[in-house]
Design brief:
Length: 308
């Protein structure tokens, strides 16, 4: 029955455009040939309109079809209005899943922004691993995910939010502390603490050429734990740029930029490709723009409103 109903929609549209017109409007013959005649045989061979009367008028069966068409077109309009309203609504629940190395940076600001700007939205956040975020998105168990890109998953849409460098956090007891910057290759020779397959020191064999990427250092857990481990045990750890603002001022002297090359990660907002809540999407983007320094923001979200 659903498919039968939907088959009425093209017919209804064609009838509405061709013969649902004011009586004083008389279409030219080319219009009759191209538009009206094409609808005549679509009702099982029944004549929908009489081409004899001037102006053109529906037959008895044609009038019934038109009446049905009006109802169908009204319902189609209601569906469109419902979709439009849903896109623009700024109330109800909003569930965001974030990886743990992004959560401390974004979550406090997200709650602040939504509490002040959109109090009708019930924001819920949860930390989880990247694969879990993607799985929950596919199952529609969360509305959005914020992860380190690229994602490249069928059925998911990725929107870059910001890009950030990595910094080294160096114990004053480590010889690298005396340097103004840390070369990427020198990390192979240092005791680097990471959170990947547990909290541990990096095995240099894991850093093959060209693989100095975010996911080589963080899988789960808090960056603050790595900093505390370095403070207590010496060595080096790698932290994202946005986390440098969370470090106590008295410990800022332990930060060193990493160079040659400069490692960078992209943090992206991920949604299902059938997500329709455009207003909520843009609300989250605006919140991120209030939290993250402007120079780090991706050009896509700097330009303004996103359209789904």
């Amino acid at each position: 029955m659903v498919m039968v109903t939907f088959r009425w929609i093209p017919l209804a549209a064609r009838i509405a455009r061709s013969i649902l017109m004011p009586p004083e409007v008389e279409p030219e013959q080319p219009q009759i040939s191209e538009q009206i005649m094409s609808t005549v045989m679509l009702s099982g061979g029944q004549v929908v309109v009489s081409l004899v009367a001037k102006p053109v008028v529906p037959t008895e069966i044609g009038r019934k079809i038109i009446d049905r068409a009006k109802v169908v077109l009204y319902n189609v309009g209601q569906i469109s209005e419902l979709a439009r309203s849903e896109k623009e609504t700024l109330s109800g629940s909003l569930r965001i899943a974030l990886i743990s190395t992004v959560s401390p940076v974004l979550v406090p600001g997200l709650f602040k922004y939504f509490g002040d700007t959109y109090p009708s939205i019930s924001l819920q956040t949860e930390e989880m691993l990247t694969d879990t975020v993607k799985d929950k998105l596919r199952k529609a168990e969360v509305d959005m995910g914020i992860v380190a890109g690229p994602v490249r998953e069928p059925g998911l849409l990725e929107i870059p939010l910001y890009h950030e460098r990595f910094f080294a956090y160096v114990s004053p007891e480590n010889p690298a502390y005396a340097r103004e910057s840390i070369r990427s290759e020198s990390l192979l020779k240092e005791p680097v603490w990471i959170i990947r397959k547990g909290l541990r020191q990096l095995d240099p064999r894991e850093l093959e050429e060209g693989t100095f990427t975010y996911d080589r250092f963080f899988e789960g857990g808090r960056v603050g734990i790595l900093i505390q481990v370095v403070n207590d045990n010496g060595g080096i750890t790698i932290i994202p740029e946005t986390h440098t603002r969370l470090i106590l001022y008295s410990l800022q002297h332990c930060l060193r930029p990493i160079v040659d090359p400069v490692p960078v990660r992209t943090i992206s907002l991920v949604i299902r490709d059938d997500y329709i809540h455009e207003a909520k999407l843009n609300a989250v983007v605006e919140a991120v723009k209030h939290i993250i320094p402007g120079p780090l923001l991706d050009d896509v979200i700097r330009k303004g409103h996103l359209t789904l």
